[in-house]
Design a protein that fits this description.
Low-confidence stretches: 1-17
Radius of gyration: 14 Å
Order of helices and strands: HEEEEEEEEEE
Mean pLDDT: 87
Strand content: over 45%
CATH topology: Lipocalin
CATH class: Mainly Beta
Distance between the termini: 33 Å
CATH superfamily: Calycin beta-barrel core domain
Shape: globular
Strand order of the largest sheet: 1-2-3-4-5-6-7-8-9-10
Helix content: under 10%
Number of helices: 1
């Protein structure tokens, strides 16, 4: 079964407000909660909830520590580390991903790409909503170029 890397979206490096995407990055500093639905091909739908706490370390790396609760599975911990790699790019790691996490910032949207430790490639779009208190989260999981699962959800800033 595919474990969605839900709040993967979250960890973004701190940056001056003038940089593109700075509002989206700051959204993940503090506490967040996410509620999502995953649709797995041939298996149906199930829910995923997460609680995260983000901070920026002294090197400007956004560190997001999460507890992910996926229906039918034990809760698990996940840690994201993302930093600016350019004016509109982020790079980093996630504890349950294989290899690097790469992200592009465009307006109010962060587009992440990485490979899940379970194998599928993941593309994720996080869109900050007007008011800056919520963001939508959409993820697409593919194996051999074929979509095997999708996740749709909302992330809410708690602090």
């Amino acid at each position: 079964m595919i474990k969605p890397a839900l709040l993967a979206l979250l960890l973004l490096a701190a940056a001056p407000a003038a940089q593109p995407g700075a509002e989206l990055e700051q959204f993940f500093v503090g506490r967040t909660e996410g509620v999502s639905t995953v649709h797995v091909m041939m298996s149906g739908r199930h829910s995923v909830r997460d609680r995260g706490r983000g901070r920026i370390d002294r090197n400007g790396v956004l560190i997001l520590e999460q507890v992910v609760e996926e229906e039918g599975k034990p809760a698990r911990n996940r840690v994201w580390r993302l930093a600016r790699a350019g004016p509109r790019t982020l790079a980093g790691t996630i504890s349950d991903a294989r290899g690097p996490v790469i992200g592009d910032l465009s307006g109010n949207t962060l587009h992440l790409r990485y490979r899940s430790a379970e194998g599928p490639s993941v593309e994720q779009w996080i869109m900050l909503q007007p008011g800056g208190r919520t963001a939508t989260n959409r993820m697409v999981f593919k194996r051999f170029g074929v979509r095997v699962a999708t996740l749709e959800g909302v992330i809410r800033r708690v602090d």
